Amino acid sequence: MIIQRYIGKEILLATLAITLVLLLIGISNQFVVYLADAAKGELSPALVFKIVAMHLPSLLGLLLPLALFFGIMMALSRLYAESEMTALLACGMPYKRLLQTVLRPALLVTAIALVLNLWLAPYYLYQVTKTLAEAESDLMTRAIQPGRFQASDDGKYVLYIDRISASEKRAYDVFVAEQEPSPGDEYRLGVIASDSGYQMQDPDTKDEYIVLQDGYRYQGNPGEKEYQLMAFKEYGLRILQRQAKFKVRESAMTSMELLSASSRDEQAELQWRISIALSGIILAMFALVIAKVKPRQGKYAKALPGIITAIVYVNVLIFARGLYEDTTIPLWVGLFWVPLLGLLLAAFGIWWQANKQ
Predict the structure, then answer these.
(1) Whole-number Å distance between alpha carbons of 71 and 69
(2) Which of these, 35, 41, 110, 157, is most buried using a 10 Å CB contact count?
């Protein structure tokens, strides 16, 4: 038991360290995507952290089996390189006991990955889709960035807001330049300046408005003498209209919805979630086979074969999903032939290595 706890501790510590590194890389990639949208004014910077945080369950569900694979390889390769594993096996520790020691954290990681992939990740990916759709239609949280001139999608409005109070849902020091149709298929320029404003939705038409308060409206064309000046207490302006697009992708559907679905894409998504979780056990068995090194080789001698093994396995799984979605693979085959094939190969490798001890 002491030996098992020692080896298990080494595996879990290495797995935790690799998980943090891989998670940092995944989060950084998500930040790059959403920060680019925020820089273009398509997303509020305040929402970037919230959306990236909601991607954590899906990232963990994908990265945990890989982190366990490399964690086992690092831990066991160090024990082999420093002759500790050789001494343990020479003193009578059966290879079966080593397999049991490796499979315990693998079962734990697989259970966690199943919970993440089947329940938590779809829920939070649905929340991401919903948040992006709401942000797209919410003027005060989507596109309006204080201190910047921003044009509407049709190019007929230019809006400037000095600052926005998120708690009050109000904008301050608002400037709007708009083109209005006039007789003769011409447009007249209107300029509006107000002290503050807020967003409002018409209960009947569901149109979004900015209601400006305590300001002035100037109307006319440059170079002409005919100008109109109007002071107002409140002025409603329909601007930057964009309907929220809320289409739920397969990755954001609940597992129960996928279970009763008839589409190949939706069935492939459910099998993908389960297959990724089962990869924890299969990759752990592969790691046990690959991690054995000679003392003079060093603990990183099998790093390259390990990376190649992980890449090949994941890409075969992705390839199988593509074939299934393209109706190349029959329905009864699905994606589970990949984990089954991996399990058979890993079991054969363990049997071969155990007989060589």
Answers:
(1) 5
(2) 110
Average pLDDT over residues 316-345: 90
312 Cβ neighbours under 8 A, 6+ residues apart = none
Look at residues 176, 211, 237 and tell me which one is the last residue of a structural domain.
237
| Token code pair at residue 352 | 């071969």
DSSP 104-118: HHHHHHHHHHHHIII
Q: What is the pLDDT of residue 167?
A: 64
**Overall domain count for the chain:** 2
pLDDT recorded at residue 171 = 85
Question: Within this chain, do residues 346 and 259 fall inside the same structural domain, yes or no?
Answer: yes
Contacts of 348 (CB under 8 A, 6+ apart): none
CA–CA separation, 208 and 244 (whole Å): 12
Q: For 14, what's the count of Cα atoms within 13 Å in the CB-facing half-sphere?
A: 22
Pair (278, 330) in one structural domain: yes
Q: What percent of the chain has pLDDT over 70?
A: 90
Judged against a pLDDT cut of 50, whether residue 141 lies above it is answered with no
Among 339, 332, 338, which residue's Cα sits nearest to residue 319? 338
116 plus 160 within the same structural domain: no
**Segments forming the whole domain that contains residue 167:** 149-237
What does the block give as tokens for 48?
Answer: 């970037």
Most confident of 152-156, 205-209, 275-279: 275-279
Q: Cα(288)–Cα(290) distance, rounded to whole angstroms?
A: 6
